[in-house]
Specification:
- It is a single chain.
- The chain has one helix and five strands.
- The protein has 71 residues and is mainly beta.
- It has one domain.
Amino acid sequence: MTDIDVQPLVRRFKIGSLELPDPAPDLPPGEAVKAFAVTYPHCANALLGEPEVRDGAWVYPVEKPPVKTNG
């Protein structure tokens, strides 16, 4: 019989070409990404895309909010 080592997947957030580690693993992804707003202001209102599993982690793409136009 073989031993199976199960490790939970971690989260990372992809902002442009950067992949940043999860700043708050205990929060939902939408709230955790807001912690980056100090350095990346657009993260305060950012949208999260569908995550994909890559290199043992859930990678969430962080998308800029849509531009609002009047008229």
